[in-house]
């Protein structure tokens, strides 16, 4: 039986503020973290904490870096088995690969199989929380929350709603009424149960009727503490399509805004090709913009304006967008975010990348008081990084003179081999 209190020794990384605003000095490195019954009790000096807590079991991670568990702010767990599907852009990719795969979730046993496999993949990549779309099938939501409950993970998810006959296949279509009823029943079953959070989930305006958007806007108004997630301005073809389907809308965001789907707890995936009015409104309401860099290059969507959006004070999270994204790894996702920001003129500091993958995403999910940082009172979700996990990374890290120089090769070149261990609510899940 493990003791209730564990003292983790290593290089413990905490944020005193957002490095995107305060710079890399907002990061503090301590030599120990005390965890008791799933929560962080103290972060500080190893000798002092050892002396003050002689009862604690000690786990020594050596020179490894202990970071908050990664928070993936936008993913589609049902796309796990069709990740890396070749050769299409968004609309064809959805029709050719995504919808047929999502159809398989009509079988609850298949949904349970993929949900468990998906969460285990996340844990092996150091991700402890995710905000995921499910499929139109309510059982696909139960499957993910049950798998998360079994692992103790804080998971955000919702039933994907899509009812527009001219844009959705008949095997993957609900109605305005059934979307409202099913979402409400799932919300009542799961929201706030343990670590589960229900997220109202219209897929995107091209696949919903106005009646469905209106119904989900009403559900959100009735449950304002829930998050709402959708997609916004991912590809230019998609924007043209939205204009044709919603001729009276001022812009893409307006298709949501007009139906009660713009709000402070709204999460807008991609948000690449934004009009000035859309940027202003998103900032005014403090909505979350979720950057999905491996997806944006893989499906050929465009280059997110990280520098401009950070400068104007937008709330930004980072995500894989599995399986439009080409990876389960938030390390790989940070590397892609770095490369895209470089193309738009900003070199994101490793502290900024790590923050976006942890506290930044938690902030977008309005959960940064619980996850995304290693500080007293926070839930003990953390990941231990080996900064010399492959010969290529090790030989570069050996030349490093600072922690950031030692870490950056792992951000750029690392994968699940860099994850020495993942802890969820204080319990080792791997490592
Ligand atoms: N837009 C609507 N649905 C999806 C999806 O499943 N993936 C991506 N990348 N974009 C979408
Ligand atoms: Zn998506």
From TrEMBL:
It is an enzyme of class 3 (hydrolase). Its cofactor is Zn(2+). GO terms for biological process: guanine catabolic process. Keywords: Hydrolase, Metal-binding, Zinc. It catalyses: guanine + H2O + H(+) = xanthine + NH4(+). Pathway: Purine metabolism; guanine degradation; xanthine from guanine: step 1/1. Catalyzes the hydrolytic deamination of guanine, producing xanthine and ammonia. PANTHER family: GUANINE DEAMINASE. Residues 34-56 form the Aminodeoxyfutalosine deaminase/Imidazolonepropionase-like composite domain. It holds the Pfam family Amidohydro_1. One of its GO terms (molecular function) is zinc ion binding. Belongs to the metallo-dependent hydrolases superfamily. ATZ/TRZ family. Residues 66-428 form the Amidohydrolase-related domain. Binds 1 zinc ion per subunit. One of its GO terms (cellular component) is cytosol. It comes from Salipiger pallidus. InterPro entries: Amidohydro-rel (IPR006680), Guanine_deaminase (IPR014311), Metal-dep_hydrolase_composite (IPR011059), Metal_Hydrolase (IPR032466), Metallo-dep_hydrolases (IPR051607), MQNX/HUTI_composite_N (IPR054418). This is Guanine deaminase. Its EC number is 3.5.4.3.
């Amino acid at each position: 039986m493990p003791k209730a209190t564990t003292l983790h020794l290593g290089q413990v990384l905490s944020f005193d503020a957002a490095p995107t605003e305060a710079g890399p000095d907002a990061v503090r490195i301590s030599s120990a973290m005390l965890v008791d019954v799933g929560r962080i009790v103290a972060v500080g000096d190893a000798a002092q904490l050892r002396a003050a807590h002689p009862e604690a079991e000690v786990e020594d991670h050596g020179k490894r870096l202990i970071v908050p568990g990664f928070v993936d702010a936008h993913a589609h767990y049902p796309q796990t088995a069709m990740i890396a599907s070749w050769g299409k852009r968004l609309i064809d990719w959805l029709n050719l690969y995504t919808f047929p795969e999502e159809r398989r979730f009509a079988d609850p046993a298949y949904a349970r199989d993929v949900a468990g496999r998906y969460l285990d993949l996340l844990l092996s990549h150091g991700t402890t929380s995710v905000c995921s779309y499910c499929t139109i099938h309510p059982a696909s939501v139960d499957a993910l929350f049950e798998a998360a409950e079994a692992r103790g993970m804080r998971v955000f998810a919702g039933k994907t709603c899509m009812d527009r006959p001219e844009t959705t296949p008949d095997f993957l279509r609900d109605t305005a009424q059934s979307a409202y009823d099913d979402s409400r029943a799932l919300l009542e079953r799961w929201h706030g149960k343990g670590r589960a959070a229900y997220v109202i989930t219209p897929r995107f305006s091209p696949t919903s009727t106005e009646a469905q958007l209106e119904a989900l806007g009403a559900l959100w108004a009735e449950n304002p503490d829930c998050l709402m997630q959708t997609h916004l301005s991912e590809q230019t073809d998609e924007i043209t399509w939205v204009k044709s389907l919603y001729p009276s809308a001022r812009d893409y965001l307006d298709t949501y805004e007009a139906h009660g789907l713009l709000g402070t707890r709204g999460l807008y995936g991609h948000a690449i090709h934004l009009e000035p009015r859309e940027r202003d409104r998103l900032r005014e309401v403090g909505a979350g913009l979720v950057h999905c860099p491996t997806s944006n290059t893989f499906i050929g969507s465009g280059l997110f304006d990280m520098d401009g959006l950070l400068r104007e004070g937008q709330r930004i999270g980072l995500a894989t967008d599995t399986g439009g994204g080409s990876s389960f790894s938030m390390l790989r996702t940070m590397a892609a975010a770095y490369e895209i920001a470089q193309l738009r003129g900003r070199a994101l500091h490793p502290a900024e990348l790590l923050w976006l993958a942890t506290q930044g995403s938690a902030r977008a999910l309005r959960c940064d008081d619980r996850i995304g940082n290693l500080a007293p009172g926070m839930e003990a979700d953390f990941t231990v990084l080996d900064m010399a996990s492959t010969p290529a990374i090790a030989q570069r890290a050996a030349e490093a003179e600072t922690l950031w120089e030692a870490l950056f090769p792992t951000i750029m070149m690392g994968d699940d081999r860099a994850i020495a261990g993942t802890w969820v609510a204080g319990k080792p899940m791997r490592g």
